[in-house]
């Protein structure tokens, strides 16, 4: 019987299943160093801190990733500084 592989979150320092971590191609083990729950809290706090910045990023992403095979409206990096 195989044992479930586990990893310790660097934020909450709780040992969790590997399924609780998102993928990260740059990481040595292929997973983020923070669990999904901690990352969710980090992103929510960042949004609360500056919601207009995040709304602008979403708008840029939506313009560059149209639905139904339409051409993008403009070519701008999703990670550009909007303000």
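Q: What amino acid sequence fits the structure above?
A:
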């Amino acid at each position: 019987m195989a044992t479930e592989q586990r990893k310790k979150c660097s934020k909450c320092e709780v040992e969790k299943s590997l399924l609780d971590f998102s993928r990260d191609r740059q990481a040595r083990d292929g997973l983020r160093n923070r669990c999904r729950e901690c990352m969710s809290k980090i992103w929510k706090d960042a949004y609360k801190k500056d919601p207009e910045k995040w709304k602008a990023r979403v708008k840029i992403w939506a313009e560059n990733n149209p639905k139904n095979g339409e051409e993008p409206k403009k070519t701008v990096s999703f990670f550009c500084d909007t303000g």
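Q: And what stands out in the fold?
A: The chain has a mean pLDDT of 86.
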